[in-house]
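Marked as duplicate of an earlier ticket. Keeping the data here for the record.
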Amino acid sequence: MLTKNEGTTDRVVRGVLGAGLLVASFAGLGLTSAKPLGIVAALIGVVLLFTAATGSCLLYRLVGLDTSK
């Protein structure tokens, strides 16, 4: 089970940045033409959206951060 370690502000920022990266990767960075920058932006966007949706960040857990309080 994923332990929540992100606060509301953290989750909102991750959601906005993740959505922005996904839109940018489709619109201008070349995801549809398989350009490396578009692929990387899309992957980072998906990870940010996943962590925002679940409220859990593996990197935070590894370094001992918790913004949920």
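See parent ticket for discussion. The longest helix spans residues 8-27.
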